[in-house]
Each structure stands twice: as structure tokens, then as C-alpha cells.
Amino acid sequence: MGSLFRSEEMTLCQLFLQSEAAYACVSELGELGLVQFRDLNPDVNAFQRKFVNEVRRCDEMERKLRYLEKEIKKDGIPMLDTGESPEAPQPREMIDLEATFEKLENELREVNQNAEALKRNFLELTELKHILRKTQVFFDEQEGGMHTTESMTRALITDESRTGKAMGPVQLGFVAGVILRERLPAFERMLWRACRGNVFLRQAMIESPLEDPSNGDKVYKSVFIIFFQGDQLKTRVKKICEGFRATLYPCPEAPTDRREMAMGVMTRIEDLNTVLGQTQDHRHRVLVAAAKNLKNWFVKVRKIKAIYHTLNLFNLDVTQKCLIAECWVPLLDMETIQIALRRGTERSGSSVPPILNRMETFEDPPTYNRTNKFTNAFQALINAYGVASYREMNPAPYTIITFPFLFAVMFGDLGHGAIMALFGLWMVLKEKPLAAKKTDNEIWNIFFGGRYIIFLMGVFSMYTGFVYNDIFSKSLNVFGSSWSINYNTSTVMTNKALQLNPGSNDYSGTPYPIGVDPVWQVSDNKIIFLNAYKMKISIIFGVIHMLFGVFVGLFNHRYFKNKMAIYCEFIPQVIFLVFLFFYMTLLMFIKWTKYSADNENKNLSAGCAPSILITFINMVLFKPPQKGLCNPYMFGGQAGLQKFLVVIALLCVPWMLLAKPLMIMRSRKQAAHQPIAPYSNENGDADGGLNQHNNVQADGTQQAGGAAAGGGGGGHGHENEEMSEIFIHQGIHTIEYVLGSVSHTASYLRLWALSLAHAQLAEVLWNMVLKNGLQQGGWIGGIALWIIFAVWAVLTVGILVLMEGLSAFLHTLRLHWVEFQSKFYAGLGYAFQPFSFEMILESSSNSSED
């Protein structure tokens, strides 16, 4: 239970492992996940370490598995995932795994190469088939009773008569091919310009898309045939076709030859289809067999790689028969780790038991807070600000309650809280199937990781919404209102200036049992009433929250035996906060209980109740209140008490500022005059001063060896620090606390502001959207209400639950990080990162999905 409030006690250990047992022992420790190894070879290059070849072999196996995974995903084959994590295989099994992966990769690459070659051949035959069909249409087409060749001839003769050049007998040649459809316009323009219009181009689209064998994409192509005269134009046309990556195919001039070629092409295509089907079936069988074991293979290879990577952190002794490691381990888990090491030794068959020795060190241990699936999200909120210093008080247990409660104060609505609670409850109940569906959607992962926070925030919001008596901007009259209307209906409906007097028969004298009376929901001065109510409870919650943070700091001082911090920091801080701000909250309770509208004493009536804010300002400024018909004081002797409280609070400022530096200065002077010879511990001044100096040094030594410097009020090591720096640092802390007490108290007013804004936004949404649908009658009104309710529901969830919920969440986070944790939390530690297969596999799967 102690580890919940503080981090685990850690110890630095030295581990001696026999070389043949090291692999099995590290494997057992990886399954356990309780040991953080230190790198004993920081100056050695990664490529010069002992097990670098084994790591490279694992990288190569992982590459082959990723290749198999890519091919399996390409074919849409489901990969079997049992959820079980197989143990790390023995080193001798690496050879079998390498051989298996090598065989699978070679077989798959060979099948893919054959399939690509067959597909390329199939593509060429398909294109040739379309060319033979389309060119047959070109040759069969007639234009005015003439064949295309004759039309081309006449066009060229016309060109001859226009240019005045003599031409001999026209002998036309042609080429046919296919080209990508998007390149056709540019191709046609280039032909026209390069050949000066002396070519004749015909083209036709291939309706069905063709598969590109290199990447499997679907492409659209067109068939073209180009007529020209002479070898010079033929050479030019072929170069243009080559430049536009058009594929040319032989096309006979005689119709009979074309028909014979087309029949041969069709026969070859049918044969190719048969061979392609068999190739694809063989590829599918190979991939299906690999998909059954791929997840387990990945786990095994990554575990082997992690083990050898960890072994590279170890040192070899001079005989090279023993590996030496240093590691941080939790003190409570020493026996569990010993058992795991013995189990690993037995598995390896070694006769030499491993040796685990504790070491003394002045290094700061890592911070390890044990968490479960419930507390993990709250601990993550704290660690996002900063990891706690070693053995510093952990704010996470208190945050479990205070975080959703302060959120609910801002988000208090029974309806909106129910939506949030149901969403969180659904994620909690469907935890296992939702966790199994791993997704790279970052927003969903954030929601799912904080499912318990969302659920608690919704439940607490339902409670505060019940206290506010606010559900979708409306109220519930559960217990019956304490107010009664003593007017007739016509007067109430026509006179908007009517008021209910709490001092008359309008009020029963018995308040509403729980929360706010529902009559306030229909009153015009609702905002004025809720303003004062929510502002005061915000200040009350804020002062209590800050005061609790200061007292948590006391536990840090006591744990680290830092008496100086208790006397010089904690006591004046508590006095300053209690004598000023906690006194202000007490005035609020006095005002609520002492003054009432039906009190017969005029000085104790509601109209004579003094303003808390004005009273506090006058108190700090030593300004006497203005006397009038009412008594400005709430109780006798208030003026003298307030002056006493302010004076004592102001004296706490130099107390916080000077006491600690002066005590350090005094202890240093006493230490400088200590005798050289041994002495007995007497009650003299010198001995007392020396003992005090030794205590200060002991505090600093303990802090350096057992916690990070400045860890939550732990003893600061001031031995080597200049006195000027100590005065400056103490001045900064004092100013920060004094001004922070004022600004932090005001900062808690965000509880009031956001709560009021949320309630008013919900009311505006009701009046401007849903109220309009409720005012229409008939079947048209029913349809309109259905549509308007859908709009209202979408806006409610989108704006009031999601956006307002996010805003309240961020403000609550700020109140904890700044206003609460600044009173005791340093957050200067570093996290415990054990060698854990579970964490390594989880991070590897996340990176592969990204």
C-alpha cells in the first residue's frame, strides 16, 4: 500500500552470470519485467560489441518477416493471432528459424518473379489482341466508299497539288501500338509538329483497364495506328513512340494474316491464364501457411533481438566465462528475481548459480510506481508534468478523486454527465475486445486509454448536476419546491415584476433537501443567485485543495528527515495560507449560517450581510469598514482578530525568506570552528552546532543517495552552494509562494466561470433549438420535432459534451499541475524502464502499424 503513495524502494545490484546461462537468465528477466539494466560499455561503439553479429542476424530475420507480412496483407489473408506470447527460443533454434525464413523468402520471391513475367507476357498478348481487333476495324472502315489507305493517298495528293511538288507512286507504311490514355493528346501534338502533318493517326480506346505487372495497378490505354510515307518518317515516328513509352507491336497488312495471328494470340492467352492460376494458387498456399505462424515468429525474433541487445550492455570478465551486469531492481521483488535467475540457470543446464549482490551508490535511483489498468491513466497525467523524484509523494492517488470532482464542478449537468459516464462505462465493459482491435487512430487511443477517467468524470458530473439540479438546462422537482406562489394565474402571467419574498409566506422555511431548489430554474435572477453560490464554493474548494497540497509536502519533509524545511518552510506556509485565505472561507460559512431573510434582528437580516470580498480587502489594507445602519462586523472582536491574522501572516514572509539561509550560514560557521581531535558528544554549544551541521550534511547525503535533489521538500545539498545563490533561491521560492497563494486562489474561480458558462450554453441551445420544435403541433410538428431533436442531440454531444468536456478537462489539469502540485511536487526524477518483453513487443507492434 505504501508504494501507491510513494515510488518503490529501489536498489542497485551487481549480477554475475555464467556465459552459457546468460541468455536463459536474461530471457527469464525479460518475461518478468522488473529489472532495468545499466550500460557498462558506454564508450564502446554499437558495432564493436560482443553480440553485434547476433543482433544483425535478428535484424535480417525481421526484414524477411516484414516482407512476408507485406505480401500477406497484399493478398488480404488473415493472420492468426492467438494473443499468446511464446517464450524466447534457445540460441540453437536461431539456425532453424533462419533456414525457415530463408526458404520462405526465396520461394516467395521466385513465385513473384515468375508471376510477374507471366503477367507481363499476358499484358503483351492482351495488348496485341486489342491491336489486331482495332486495326481490323481501321482497315475495314470506309470513308465515302474509299478505304482508309486510299483516303490517306488522296490527302497526300492534295498536299502535293497545294505545294506544287511532284510525287511519284504513293507507297504507305504504318506502325501500330498502345499508349497510356493520358499521354495520347501530347503524343498526337508531337507527331503533328515533328512530322509536319505528314502522318495520319487513328486511335481507339481500350474499354477495360489493364493490370500493370510491376505494381499491380489498373491502367487505361489506347490503341493507335500511324500511317506515313518513307523511311525517314518511319524512323522519326518510332523515336517519338519510344519517347512517350508507347509499345509497338507487329501487325500484318493482309487480313488473313491478321486473323491467323489473332487466333494464335487467343490460344496463348488461354494457356497463360491456366499457368497464372496455378502460380497464384501456389503463392496463396505459401502465404496461408506463413500467416498461421507469422505473429509467433515476430515475437520470437524480437525477443531474441532484445536479449542480445541487453547482453551487449554487460561486461565480460578477464576469463570471458562470466558476464557482469549492473541493474536497478525494486527491493520488494528481490526474491522473485532470484527465483527467475535460478529458473534460467536450470533451463540452460549450467551448474554455476547466478550471483546477485546489492551495491552502495550515490546515484539517483529511478522512480517506479506500480500501477494497474485503473490507476495507470491517472499516473500518466502526473508523469506528463514530470516524473516524481525518488520516494517523493505521488499525487496520483489523490488525483483519482480530486481530478474528476473538480472537473464535475465545472461540468455539472446530470444529462451531459450521464452521456459521458455511459460512454466510459461502455469502454470499460468492452475493454478486452476493444483492446484486441489495435488501431492507429490517435484520438480513439487517447479516449480508450483514459476510459476510467472518463467514466469517473461522468459519474461525478452526474452528482454535481444533481446538486445544481441541472439536467440539459432544466431542473427536476423531486422533493417538491420550498417556495409557493400566493398570486392568481392572471397576475402571474401578466406581471413579470413579481418577486417571491423569502421573509414572507412565499417560503416554507425548510430548504430543498438536496441541491438547488427547482424554482430557481424559472426565476429571472437565477444567474445572480448561482453567481454568488458557485463563486464561493470555488474559493472554498480551491483553498482546501491548496492547503491539502501544503500538508502533503509535510509528509515529504518528514520522510526525508528535513527538519529545516518543516520549521523554515512548512509552518510559515501553513500559517500564511490559513490566516488569510482559510479565514476568508470561514467568513463565508459564518455569513451563510448567521444571516437570513426572516431574521427578526435587523443587523442579522439578508440586507445587512457584509460583502466577503470587501471585508477581506479592508482586512489586508488595515482599513476600517464604513459604518452605516448595519453592523459591518459578523462577530465580536473581528477587527482585532483580523489585524492579528494579517500581522502574523506578514511576519511569515521574512520567516520564509531568511530563516533557512541564516540557519545554513550559522551551521557553516560552526562547522568551520570544529576541533580536529576526536571529541565526545556533550551538551556544549560547539557540539550542538556541530551535530546540527552533521544533520544538515546527512540530509544532503541521504537526498543525493536516495532521491533526486529538491525532491518534494527533501533535503537540498547546500554544502557546495554559494550563500548568495541560497538567498536568491529562497527569495524566488518565497515570492512564488506568496504571490502564488493570491493568484492560485483566484485561479480556482475558473470552477465558477466554466460552470456558469456551461449551464448558460446548455440553456441557449435548448431555447434556440429544441424549444422551437416543441411549440409546433400536428403531424408536421412531429416531423419537425424529430428533425430538430436530431440537430439538438448532435450539437449537445459535439459542443456541450466533447468541446466543453475537453475545455473543463484542460482547466482541471492546470489546477492539478500548477495550483496543487506546486505546493509539494518537484517532478525531477526519471522513470523506471525495466527490460520487459511485453513493453518491447507493444512498442514494436505500434511502430509497425504506424
Structure explained in plain terms:
- With 850 residues, this protein is an alpha+beta fold.
- Among the domains are: 124-266, Alpha-Beta Plaits (2-Layer Sandwich), CATH 3.30.70; 375-479 and 514-676 and 683-823, no CATH class; 480-513, no CATH class.
- It is 61% helix and 7% strand.
- It is built from 26 helices and 13 strands.
- It has helices at residues 2-5, 19-32, 52-74, 93-140, 148-163, 184-194, 231-243, 255-291, 294-311, 334-348, 375-385, 396-411, 414-429, 431-436, 442-449, 451-468, 489-494, 526-559, 563-594, 612-620, 638-672, 685-706, 723-747, 750-774, 778-820, 837-849; strands at 10-18, 36-37, 142-143, 146-147, 172-180, 200-205, 210-211, 218-219, 221-229, 247-249, 315-316, 322-330, 355-359.
- The strands form 4 sheets. Strands 1, 2, 11, 12 and 13 form a 5-stranded antiparallel β-sheet that branches. A 4-stranded antiparallel β-sheet has the order 6-9-5-10, sandwiched between helices.
- The radius of gyration is 42 Å and the shape is flat.
- The two termini are 38 Å apart.
- The relative contact order is 0.11.
- Mean pLDDT is 85; it is low at 142-149, 153-169 and 679-716.
